[in-house]
Amino acid sequence: MTRQAEWETGLVKGHAAADDSGRAGVSNDAAHLEPYWAQLRTGLRSDIGARMFDQWLKPARLGAYCPMTETLDILVASEFSANFVSAQFGDRLRLAWRSIPAGVRDIRIVRAPDAGALRVLAVPADATPTQPAPATASGFQPRHDFDSFVTGESNQLAFSAAQAMAALEQPRFTPLFIHGGTGQGKTHLLHAIAGAYLAHTPGGTVVYMSAERFMMEFVNAMRANETMAFKARLRAARLLLIDDIQFIAGKGATQEEFLHTINELVENGARIVISADRAPQQLDAVDPRILSRLAGGLVADIQPANIDLRLAILEAKRLVAGDPPVPDAVIDFLARSVRSNIRELEGAFNKLVAYGQLTGRTIDMEFVQAMLADTVRANARRITVDEIQKACAAHYRIDPSEMRSKRRARAIARPRQVAMYIAKKMTPRSLPEIGRIFGGRDHSTVIHAVRTIEALRESNPDIDADVRALLRQLEG
Predict the structure, then answer these.
(1) Fewest CB atoms within 10 Å of the CB: 31, 70, 226, 231?
(2) In CATH, which superfamily holds the domain spanning 385-475?
(3) Cα(179)–Cα(301) distance, rounded to whole angstroms?
(4) How far is CA 60 from the centre of its chain?
């Protein structure tokens, strides 16, 4: 009888089953080995060093035991880990078990059936490059969850794809590639995916790091002759999240390792989420094989937030901000003035509320303009009256010259009034200046136009919709 047949026969006689803790694959006869395993682990940690032990043997657990052959399975997180542990520590483990009266003559290092439950790996942003990843999800920000992510047309696809990637059921695509400008919410979604995944898979193996840290750790692992450990840690992941992948551009060895990592994870059915500041096809100096793999999953972009989404984000923050209250006029001003990215928009709001709470000041427009003068100037885009006239003429399908004509037909006058209203709202031009640009009209004509459109926006949904569409177009 072969050794494998002996082991299988002995396992049947040993009545392999789940023990009281529910661990699949542990025979009833293995329970008595747990105290010995705890004793051996203490000695092994001292023998091979805390770092190597924590990386390779701390996550391991006891598997099935064959009383006939006195063979014990030790379960690890992946085939790669099994091969590495067998090669590096197999003899030491075998001798350790034989040195105690536990009835273990041989061991097998094997991948656990539920390998994803063995370990959680998260790399905090402030971790040192050589520091082993902690066995908790401390690198994730709980406040960055799906509930706190405000959605709109510009980010709905990325949000829905992120939810699918984090769901209990296996997603139909991987990798998920999320791209968008700085401060648009990519990192928020990565944290939300990790948090939601761990909520339904508490022991799931999750690795999260920036591409820059991936590169630093890989280089340090090569210098320390620890590339096997680096490879195993990443390839044991059931969910891998890499932020800002553009930073590996031009790094040949790092790209090669990254490609091998994602290829193996995809083959093993792991989930992969990658973020970048641009689409895969626009990543310069990145290996075409990586671009092909990334584009082969689902690519979801996050566009700059439009005015409606910016208003929704500020409203969500206002609901939980507490005192002092933030008036509607301030919310509207912030949404229209801070357009660069969501992170800066939220930062501006937080600054106002914090200063208001610390100083006791009322958050009014005077206070806002004083506190955010630099931010508003940095976000200012010089929109000209000429741009406004052309946009309004195109929207209402009239000739741009009608904006300056003397014709008073409603089909011409109403678009002209809308253009005057928007010019007053979006440019620093004075009323007389606006009147002169609109065919030499008096400033009182501009005042009348502004008041008319303000009133119509309250009573006429079509006019309000026209104005909103034009504001979005011009602000974009």
Answers:
(1) 31
(2) DnaA protein, C-terminal DNA-binding domain (1.10.1750.10)
(3) 5
(4) 30
For domain 156-302, the CATH architecture is 3-Layer(aba) Sandwich (3.40)
Q: What is the DSSP string of 355-416?
A: HHHHH-----HHHHHHHTHHHHHHH-----HHHHHHHHHHHHT--GGGGGS----HHHHHHH
Q: Which of 136, 160, 116 is nearest to 265 (CA)?
A: 116
- CB proximity list for 439: less than 8 A, separation 6 or greater: 403, 404, 405, 406
Distance CA 77, CA 236 (A): 6
pLDDT at position 139, please? 55
Which helix H or strand E contains 304, and what residues bound it? none
pLDDT in tens, 102-115: 888 888 988 877 54
Q: For the whole model, what pTM was predicted?
A: 0.57
DSSP output for 144-163: SSSTT----TTTHHHHHHHH
How distant, in Å, are the alpha carbons of 23, 388, 424 from that of 428? 70, 13, 7
Q: Is the pLDDT of residue 2 over 90?
A: no
Mind listing the pLDDT tens digit for each residue in 323-380? 888 999 889 888 888 887 898 899 889 888 888 888 888 888 888 888 888 777 766 6
Q: How many CB atoms lie within 10 A of CB 3?
A: 10
What the block records as the tokens of 372 is: 């955010």
Q: Residue 174 in contact with residue 296, Cβ under 8 Å? A: no
**CA–CA separation, 442 and 423 (whole Å):** 15
**Residue position matching structure tokens 């000429």:** 386
**Nearest by Cα to 57 from 26, 99, 30, 93:** 93
pLDDT above 70 for 212: yes
Domain limits, the chain: 3-114, 156-302, 307-377, 385-475
